[in-house]
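forwarding from the other thread:

> can someone predict this with 2'-deoxyadenosine-5'-diphosphate?

sure thing
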Amino acid sequence: MLQLHTSNMPRERTYIMIKPDGVQRGIVGQIIARFENKGFKLVAMKLCSPTKEHLETHYADLKSKKFFPGLIEYMLMGPVCCMVWEGDNAVKTGRVMLGATNPADSAPGTIRGDLCIHVGRNICHGSDSVESANAEINLWFSEAEQNTWGHHSEGWVYENVEEPKQEDGGAAASGTSNTVGTTVHAPLTAYPGANEAFNEYITYSDDASIGQDCPDLSSLKMVQGDALKTGDGRVKIVFFWGKYLKWQCWPTMIGMCEIAEKHPEIDVVGIAADKKEKDVLRFMEKGECRADCPLAFDMNWVLKDAFRNLMKVGALAVPHAFLINGEGKIVWRQAYSAGYQFATMGFYEQLLHVLAGDDISNPNGPNPEPEEDLGEEVESKDVFACQEVADAIW
Ligand code: DAT
Ligand code: MG
């Protein structure tokens, strides 16, 4: 049976770039038209003039090749047109549409087969695997430049499309639909109890990730501690940091460790969503990490993207915490402002509700008020008071 998709749920994405010769020859429009005509969705596009270092990073896997210096020189000859295209099998199909690397071997009907002759002027680039697509997309585009949107013809391109749920009087129905009923960036509604003064740390009552299975954590590269398995009966907190290494994260990290220490019956994992694994390792080597719970590196943002796809929003802000119940379902998510304590704004109270066996995962029903009937005072501490000035110097 086909898996149902709502029309604004992201599908596979690939990075396609028109090289300087393609831009100079004025065939940008023709190449874009092929991807549009195929049914793929444009989620990012820009014309830019990258630096030599940026291009060397992009082509890092070819560094040892004889043609590498010539390739970089060619790529520096003028602006390139960078794009992200989305659709089922976008990576593999994108490669087929481009044709073989050497245009002499590219089949007629492909972009290279029809529009160019020499390998050193082969007009376009396309990612060769989902992993390299994710890395290339994040090398060329910021998160804010990547657009998640519902295409009006989604249901005419795919047979497995379901309309996004529209709740009566809910945010999804109020002014966020276009004329054909596709929801585009529906604003999310804060849970009761969320502090409206700080929208960075709101929690969401109509978030698509609530009630879904937590993505498989086995793709994480553990930097410290043992790997975690969801659905093993233990409640879990999955915590993402962006600038893992910076002192601003320490309050959240310390708060997370305090929770882990206080509740040995739960599992906590801190995930570095920072792009550079070597920076994470260096941080660990310096021995200044105060976290004694498992810490992991999210290679190529595989897990961060998996959570973001469940949330059906354009970006996953960091720091960000997900609460996972013993069956492996996401029951709560909360975005934080860097520098504030992890346990604030209702997260810890909701954890206590989950541990008490309360169901907080029904986004359409009443959620327990954060401080209702818990019988325990949650003390908050000035976490900056326990940091040395030297800690903040990096
Ligand atoms: P592709 O662009 O099809 O992914 P690739 O990653 O192997 O191919 O190489 C990147 C680019 O380097 C390619 O588009 C053109 C250039 N290139 C590859 N092989 C080459 C060769 N043998 N001589 C000259 N340039 C080459
Ligand atoms: Mg390649």
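The first strand starts at residue 5 and ends at 6. thats all i got for now
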